[in-house]
C-alpha cells in the first residue's frame, strides 16, 4: 500500500490538469462564472493571497467557438477569470448589440452573416491589446509557457476540425495570429463571415466539436504519451465546462427552419459527445478525476446571441453552483486541483512508468518467501541536514531540474549555478524530498562543499553510515572508498547532492598531498546514480557538467509574492497594499534570501512593508545596515548568519584571487549606476582581458549582458554588498576618486556614430560627479562635466546642458579666473546653449563679452575667437540683425576658408550659416549656390549620414520651397528627416524646423489634412523639447490655429489654393524686401546691392584645393589633421561628428 500511496502522491503533485470549454455564444458567460467560482475556492484551499489564474493551474486548455475565444483569453493572454468575465461581457454586448440582417440568406440562397464581422474583429483586438499583447502577435510565438492552449475551427473546404495552437507540433503547423485564431474559432456560420488564414478559409469549430472534450483528450495524448496513447494514468484532473443544457425540441418540418435551426442543433449538440466520453472514463470519474459542470435548467431558451439575458445567465449559473448536488462535486474538484504542485513535463509518462515498476518490484519482494534469499536487505541511506521547506515555491525550476537529472538523454551529473541567495540550496532540498517520495529505494546523500575540511568531515560521516570506515583509520582514503561503494551496482540507486561547490581550485587541483587525483575525479560514477551540485560559478558548473547545467534565475513576481506571504506572520500586510508589496519585491530584486530576511525583520519589529521600503530606499549605508541584519533560517547552515551583506564576500575574494582585473571592474561598477553600463567604460583597455573579466563576473551571476554584449547590468544588491566590501577594506574613497578619472579618460567618442554609447554613459557620469566631485581631481571633474554637457548639445537637450555649464563656469571662475582660455571656452559654449534655447539677448551679450576678452588679450585671430564670432553671427541671424550677422559670418567664413581649408568641418559650419543669412535676405540665388556647394563638400568629405550633410540638405529644401519647387522641397525634407532621425533622434530641435517646413510644403500641395497632422506632431514635439514658451513653439501653435479654426477663414481659403498661396508668398517677400518700379516693366531694389564675391571666392578656393590635392569632384577625401577643428576646453574626445 505504501507504494501505491507514493504513486498516487506523484500523480497528485504532477499529474495532468486539462480544461475543456464548450461553445455557446453568450452562454459562454456561464462557463466563465463556473470557472471563476472554482478558482476562488481553489485559491482559498491553497492559501493563496490572490485569486489563481487558470493558466497557473491547467496544463492544457482547449475550446471551441466562444469557448475557444475564452481559452485564448485565459491561456494565451493569461487573463484572470475576473478580467475575462468583464472583457467577455463587453465583447458580446458590442458584437451582438445590432444585427445587420434578420434573415441569414439572400435572395440567391447564399448564406449572409447576421452580425458585423468587423465589429467582432475590433472587439477581439481591443481585448488583446488590453491584455498587454498585440493583435498581430502569433498564437505560437515561440515562447515557452506552462499552459498550452488550442482552439478548434473547421476548414471550410474539407469540413475537418483544425486545431490552432499556442505551441509547436510537428507536421501540423498553421501559422495564425492571436486575432486570427480567435476569429476563426468564433466565426459561426450565419452569424459571421468566414476567416482567411494564409490560403485557407475557416469557420467556427462547433460543427463536430462544439464540446471539444475528445479533441482535448486526443491533443493531450499527442503531447504526453505519443507512442502508448494511454492517457488515463497521467491525468490528475479533467475538467469539462458546458454552456447550459439545450431544450429538447422536435424536428422542424419547415425546410428553412430545418436548415437554419434543427440541422444546427444536430451538428453542434454536445450531449452525445459527453455521453461517449464519460463512458470511456467511467473508472476515472469514480476516482474523482473527471468533472463535467453544465447548467441543467434555466438556459434552455437563451439563444447564442441573446446578450439581453446576461442577468438570467448569471442567476441560473448561481443557482446551479449552490445546488446541494453540485456543492459536493465542486468540492471534490477543488480538493483534486489543490494538490497540483507544478506543470506536467512532456516526459511525465516515463516517471509514471518508473513508479509502476518500483511498485511492482516492492510487491514481488513482499510476496517472496522468507527463506528464498539469504542476501540481507539493504536500507537506502538518508543523509540530508535540513527539514523540508514547506514554503518552497519554485516548482517550475524544480521540474526542469528533475527532467535533466532523470532523462535518459542527459548525463548523470547536473550543475545548478546562480547568484548567492537565489535559492539553489532550497531547490536541491526540495529535490531530495521529492526523489525520496518518487524512488523510495534510492539513497540520498548531501555533502556541503564550502571548504575542504567540511567536505572531508561530511564524507567521513557518510562512510560511517555505509559501514566502510577503513580499518587503519586513514580518513584520507574515505573519498575513494565512498567512490567505490557507490560505483557498485549492487548498492542500489543513489542521488549525491553537493551544495556550495564554489571554489574552482578545490575541484581542479589535487585534493591532498597523498593523492594525485582532483576532487572532481573522486566523484562516484554509476548508471544507477545521479549527482547534482550547486555553485555560484558558471565557470565551475561548465567544468564539472559541461553539457547539463541549469541556471537559477530570480523569481517572477507571482512566486516572490507567495514566498513573502509564506514568510510573513501578518499575511494581511500583502493584501492591504499590493502596489507597495510589488515595490518591495522589485527593490529586493526578487531574490529569495533577501525576501526571507526582509520578512524576518518585518516580523520581529512589527513594521509595515512601506516602512521597510522607506529604510531600504534611503541612504546607501542604511540599506547596507538593513541587509546586514542577522536572522535564523532552518534551511541554511549555521555559519550563514549575515546572509545578504556577507553571502557574496567569499565570491568577492575568489574573484580577486582569480582575476584582479575583474575585481577592479566590479569595484568601478559599484561607483556608477547599476544598470546599462557600457563595457567601454570598464577600467581595462585590452579587449581580451576585458571580455575575460566580464565572463568571470557573469559566471558568478553578478552581471548580465544586454545590447549585444555592449551593456552590463549589475545586480543591485550585489552593488550594495560591493560598496560594503570596499568600505571594509578602506577602498571606497579611492575608487570614487578613480571612477572620475576613468570616466574622464574613457568616455565614448562624442560623435553621431557612437551615440548609443555616450548616451548610455551620461547617467553614470552624473552619478559619479554627484558622489565623487569633492574628492576627485578638479581638472578631471571639469573635463567630465564639459563632456556630458557637450553630449546634451548633440542630443538637443539644451535645457539640461545649461545648469551643468552654469555650474562648470562658476567652478572655473573660482579656480582659474575669468580671463583663462578654458573659462572663455565654457562661457562661449554656455552662450551657444542660450541661443539654442531661444534666449537670444543673453546669448548675444555673452558672445560679445567673450570676443571682447579675446580682443583685449590680442587673440582675436585665434580659432576659439573665430568660433565665438561665428556663433555670434548665427545668433544675430536668428534674432533678426541680418546686416551685422552677414558681416561677422563673412569674417568667420573667410578665416576658416584660408586657415583651415574648405573641407574642414568648421568651414562647412560657417558656410551653412551664410546660406541661411542669404536666404533670410531673400538672396535666393546666392543662398542656392552656397547650399549646393556646402552639400557637395559635406557629402564628399563626411558622407550622407552626417549632421552637416543633413543641415546642408535642409537649407537647400527651404530654398526650393522659396522657389516654389514643391516636389523637390518635399523630397529633400523627407530625406533630411529620415537621415536626421537615424543620426540625432526624432526630437532634435533643428529637425523640428524641418518637420514644420514639411507641413508647409504639404499644405501648399493641397493636402490640407496631411499638413494638419504633421503640424500637430510638430507642435507636440516642440512643446516636449523646446517648451511651450519658445518662439518656435508659439509660431507653430499659431499656424496650427490658423489652419484649423474658422476665425481665419479668408486665410484658410488662400492657403487651400496653391497659386494664391504662391502669390501670397511673393507679396510677403516683397513686403520684407521692397522694390520700386522704373521704366515700364523694370524693377530696381530699394536696398543696397549685395556683394556676391564671397560665394565666388569659395568656389575658386574649393576648385584650387581639389586641383592641389588631385581630388575628383565625387570622391571622399580623408580630412587632413591640419584641417580638423581646434578643440577648446573643456576637452571632448576627438572626432566630434566624425566617422570612427
TrEMBL record:
GO terms for molecular function: ADP binding; hydrolase activity; transferase activity. Keywords: Hydrolase, Lipid degradation, Lipid metabolism, Transferase. It holds the Pfam family Patatin. A motif (DGA/G) lies at residues 204-206. The active site is at residues 65, 204. A motif (GXSXG) lies at residues 63-67. PROSITE patterns: PNPLA (PS51635). This is Acyl transferase/acyl hydrolase/lysophospholipase.
Amino acid at each position: 500500500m505504501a507504494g501505491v500511496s507514493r504513486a498516487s502522491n506523484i500523480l497528485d503533485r504532477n499529474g495532468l490538469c486539462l480544461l475543456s470549454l464548450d461553445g455557446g455564444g453568450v452562454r459562454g458567460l456561464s462557463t466563465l462564472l463556473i470557472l471563476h467560482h472554482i478558482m476562488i475556492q481553489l485559491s482559498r484551499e491553497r492559501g493563496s493571497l490572490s485569486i489563481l489564474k487558470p493558466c497557473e493551474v491547467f496544463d492544457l486548455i482547449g475550446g471551441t467557438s466562444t469557448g475557444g475565444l475564452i481559452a485564448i483569453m485565459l491561456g494565451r493572454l493569461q487573463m484572470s477569470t475576473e478580467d475575462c468575465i468583464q472583457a467577455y461581457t463587453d465583447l458580446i454586448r458590442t458584437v451582438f448589440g445590432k444585427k445587420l440582417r434578420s434573415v441569414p440568406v439572400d435572395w440567391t440562397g447564399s448564406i449572409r452573416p447576421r452580425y458585423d464581422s468587423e465589429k467582432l474583429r475590433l472587439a477581439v483586438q481591443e481585448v488583446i491589446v488590453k491584455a498587454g499583447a498585440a493583435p498581430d502577435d502569433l498564437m505560437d510565438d515561440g515562447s515557452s509557457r506552462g499552459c498550452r492552449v488550442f482552439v478548434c475551427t473547421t476548414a471550410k473546404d474539407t469540413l475537418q476540425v483544425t486545431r490552432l495552437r499556442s505551441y509547436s507540433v510537428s507536421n501540423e503547423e498553421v501559422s495564425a495570429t492571436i486575432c486570427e485564431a480567435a476569429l476563426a474559432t468564433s466565426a459561426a456560420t450565419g452569424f459571421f463571415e468566414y476567416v482567411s488564414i494564409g490560403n485557407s478559409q475557416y469557420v467556427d469549430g462547433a460543427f463536430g466539436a462544439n464540446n471539444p472534450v475528445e479533441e482535448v483528450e486526443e491533443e493531450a495524448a499527442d503531447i504526453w504519451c505519443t507512442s502508448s496513447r494511454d492517457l488515463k494514468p497521467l491525468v490528475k484532473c479533467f475538467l469539462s465546462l458546458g454552456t447550459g443544457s439545450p431544450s429538447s425540441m422536435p424536428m422542424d418540418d419547415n425546410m428553412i427552419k430545418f436548415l437554419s435551426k434543427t440541422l444546427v442543433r444536430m451538428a453542434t449538440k454536445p450531449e452525445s459527445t459527453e455521453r461517449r466520453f464519460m463512458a470511456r472514463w467511467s473508472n476515472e470519474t469514480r476516482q474523482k478525476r473527471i468533472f463535467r459542470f453544465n447548467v441543467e435548467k434555466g438556459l434552455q431558451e437563451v439563444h447564442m446571441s441573446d446578450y439581453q439575458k446576461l442577468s438570467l445567465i448569471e442567476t441560473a449559473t448561481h443557482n446551479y453552483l449552490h445546488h446541494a448536488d453540485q456543492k459536493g462535486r465542486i468540492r471534490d474538484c477543488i480538493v483534486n486541483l489543490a494538490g497540483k504542485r507544478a506543470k506536467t513535463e512532456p516526459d511525465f509518462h516515463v516517471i509514471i512508468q518508473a513508479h509502476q515498476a518500483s511498485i511492482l518490484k516492492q510487491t514481488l519482494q513482499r510476496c517472496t518467501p522468507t527463506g528464498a534469499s539469504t542476501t540481507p536487505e539493504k536500507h537506502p541511506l538518508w543523509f540530508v541536514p535540513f527539514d523540508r521547506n514547506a514554503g518552497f515555491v519554485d516548482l517550475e525550476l524544480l521540474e526542469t531540474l528533475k527532467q535533466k537529472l532523470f532523462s535518459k538523454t542527459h548525463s548523470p551529473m547536473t550543475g545548478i549555478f546562480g547568484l548567492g541567495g537565489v535559492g539553489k540550496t532550497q531547490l536541491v532540498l526540495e529535490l531530495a524530498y521529492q526523489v525520496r517520495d518518487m524512488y523510495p529505494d534510492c539513497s540520498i546523500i548531501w555533502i556541503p562543499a564550502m571548504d575542504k575540511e567540511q567536505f572531508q568531515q561530511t564524507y567521513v560521516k557518510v562512510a560511517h553510515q555505509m559501514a566502510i570506515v577503513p580499518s587503519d583509520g586513514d580518513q584520507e582514503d574515505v573519498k575513494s572508498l565512498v567512490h567505490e561503494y557507490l560505483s557498485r551496482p549492487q548498492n542500489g540507486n543513489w542521488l549525491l547532492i553537493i551544495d556550495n561547490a564554489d571554489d574552482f581550485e578545490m575541484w581542479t587541483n589535487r585534493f591532498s598531498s597523498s593523492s594525485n587525483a582532483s576532487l572532481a575525479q573522486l566523484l562516484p560514477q554509476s548508471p544507477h546514480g545521479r549527482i547534482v551540485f550547486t555553485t555560484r560559478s558558471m565557470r565551475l558548473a561548465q567544468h564539472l557538467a559541461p553539457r547539463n547545467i541549469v541556471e537559477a534565475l530570480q523569481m517572477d513576481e507571482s512566486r516572490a509574492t507567495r514566498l513573502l506571504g509564506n514568510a510573513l506572520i501578518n499575511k494581511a500586510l500583502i493584501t492591504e497594499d499590493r502596489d507597495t508589496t510589488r515595490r518591495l519585491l522589485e527593490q529586493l530584486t526578487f531574490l529569495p534570501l533577501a525576501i526571507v530576511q526582509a520578512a524576518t525583520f518585518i516580523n520581529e519589529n512589527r513594521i509595515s512593508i512601506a516602512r521597510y521600503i522607506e529604510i531600504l530606499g534611503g541612504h546607501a549605508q542604511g540599506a547596507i545596515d538593513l541587509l546586514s541584519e542577522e536572522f535564523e533560517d532552518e534551511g541554511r547552515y549555521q555559519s550563514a548568519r549575515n546572509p545578504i551583506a556577507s553571502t557574496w564576500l567569499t565570491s568577492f575574494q575568489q574573484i580577486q584571487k582569480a582575476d584582479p582585473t575583474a575585481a577592479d571592474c566590479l569595484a568601478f561598477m559599484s561607483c556608477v549606476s547599476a544598470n546599462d553600463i557600457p563595457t567601454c567604460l570598464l577600467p581595462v583597455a585590452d579587449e581580451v582581458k576585458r571580455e575575460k573579466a566580464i565572463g568571470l563576473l557573469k559566471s558568478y551571476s553578478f552581471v548580465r549582458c544586454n545590447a549585444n554584449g555592449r551593456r552590463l547590468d549589475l545586480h543591485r544588491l550585489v552593488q550594495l554588498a560591493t560598496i560594503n566590501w570596499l568600505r571594509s577594506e578602506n577602498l571606497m574613497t579611492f575608487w570614487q576618486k578613480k571612477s572620475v578619472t576613468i570616466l574622464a579618460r574613457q568616455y565614448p567618442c562624442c560623435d553621431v556614430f557612437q551615440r548609443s554609447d555616450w548616451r548610455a554613459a551620461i547617467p553614470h557620469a552624473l552619478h559619479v560627479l554627484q558622489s565623487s566631485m569633492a574628492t576627485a581631481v578638479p581638472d578631471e571633474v571639469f573635463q567630465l562635466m564639459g563632456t556630458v554637457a557637450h553630449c546634451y548639445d548633440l542630443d538637443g537637450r539644451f535645457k539640461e546642458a545649461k545648469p551643468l555649464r552654469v555650474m562648470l563656469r562658476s567652478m572655473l571662475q573660482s579656480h582659474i579666473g575669468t580671463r583663462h582660455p578654458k573659462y572663455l571656452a565654457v562661457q562661449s559654449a554656455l552662450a551657444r546653449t542660450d541661443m539654442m534655447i531661444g534666449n537670444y539677448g543673453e546669448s548675444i551679450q555673452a558672445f560679445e563679452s567673450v570676443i571682447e576678452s579675446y580682443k583685449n588679450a590680442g587673440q582675436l585671430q585665434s580659432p576659439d575667437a573665430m568660433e565665438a564670432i561665428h556663433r555670434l553671427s548665427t545668433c544675430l541671424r536668428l534674432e533678426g540683425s541680418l546686416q551685422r550677422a552677414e558681416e561677422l559670418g563673412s569674417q568667420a567664413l573667410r578665416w576658416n576658408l584660408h586657415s583651415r581649408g574648405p573641407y574642414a568641418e568648421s568651414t562647412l559650419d560657417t558656410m551653412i550659416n551664410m546660406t541661411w543669412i542669404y536666404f533670410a535676405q531673400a538672396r535666393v540665388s546666392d543662398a542656392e549656390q552656397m547650399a549646393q556647394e556646402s552639400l557637395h563638400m559635406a557629402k564628399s568629405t563626411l558622407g550622407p549620414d552626417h549632421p552637416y550633410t543633413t543641415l546642408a540638405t535642409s537649407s537647400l529644401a527651404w530654398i526650393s520651397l522659396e522657389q516654389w519647387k514643391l516636389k523637390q522641397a518635399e523630397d529633400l525634407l523627407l530625406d533630411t528627416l529620415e537621415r536626421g532621425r537615424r543620426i540625432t533622434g526624432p526630437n532634435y530641435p533643428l529637425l523640428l524646423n524641418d518637420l514644420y517646413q514639411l507641413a508647409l510644403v504639404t499644405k501648399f500641395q493641397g493636402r490640407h489634412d496631411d499638413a494638419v497632422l504633421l503640424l500637430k506632431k510638430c507642435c507636440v514635439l516642440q512643446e516636449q523639447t523646446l517648451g511651450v514658451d519658445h518662439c518656435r513653439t508659439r509660431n507653430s501653435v499659431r499656424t496650427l490655429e490658423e489652419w484649423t479654426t474658422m476665425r481665419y477663414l479668408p486665410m484658410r481659403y488662400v492657403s487651400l489654393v496653391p497659386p494664391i498661396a504662391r502669390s501670397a508668398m511673393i507679396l510677403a517677400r516683397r513686403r520684407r524686401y521692397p522694390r520700386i518700379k522704373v521704366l515700364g516693366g523694370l524693377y530696381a531694389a530699394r536696398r543696397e546691392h549685395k556683394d556676391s564675391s564671397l560665394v565666388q571666392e569659395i568656389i575658386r578656393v574649393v576648385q584650387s584645393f581639389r586641383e592641389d590635392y588631385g581630388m575628383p569632384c565625387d570622391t571622399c577625401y580623408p580630412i587632413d589633421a591640419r584641417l580638423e577643428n581646434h578643440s577648446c576646453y573643456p576637452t571632448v574626445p576627438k572626432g566630434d561628428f566624425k566617422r570612427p
